[in-house]
Amino acid sequence: MIAFTAALVLTLDTASTALAMPQTVASPWLRRAPTLLMAQNEPAEPAQPAPAPGDVDLLPTPAAPNPAQAARQEQLEHELQTRRKMLQLHQLGGMLTLASLGATVIFGELNYLDKYGGGGDTGRWYEWHRWTAFTAAAIFAGTGALAIFAPSPLPKPKRLDTVMLHRIAMGVATVGMVTQIVLGFVTASKGGSISQRDFALAHEIVGFTTFGATAVGFGVLTF
Predict the structure, then answer these.
(1) How many angstroms separate the CA atoms of 171 and 178, rounded?
(2) pTM, entire model
(3) What is the residue extent of each domain of the chain?
């Protein structure tokens, strides 16, 4: 009985060992099986089409920056900015010129009536007229210099427009201003002579003309 029991236990142990061996051998493959199945089920990435032999890049290759052209562009922007500032000051000077010329004409007319129009020749308006005339001449010269010396980097065709009308009017005003200064000194030097009144009248007429031309030159650009 004991021998039979020992033989049965030995037989069962041998059978269990034989059954366990295939599981041990197959277990690594079984562990990798889900991974292999998932890899097979994943969709394959589409292959990139190879470029055709005749394909040509239609976009031009960007050119390298030209140092000379970049320097020219920087200089152009600087000159345009300088011109803008100078012309803004020129516009302000135009307002002051018109105001000072108006005061000069008014005081000049009062001085003419006081001396030659029965005002008693008191001379009370003479200094007013004199100093407003000097002030107007200085402002006029400074305003004109701002326009003349302002840089003009861009070419502009000559045509009859508001800028051309402004230049024509201010050209007339410039001639009138110079004539005014000359006639003013000549008239003052003719004190006590009969011809002084004639020079004073010419000085007065040129003064009105100069003021009118300045007003036109200012108005065509403002309005």
Answers:
(1) 11
(2) 0.68
(3) 72-222
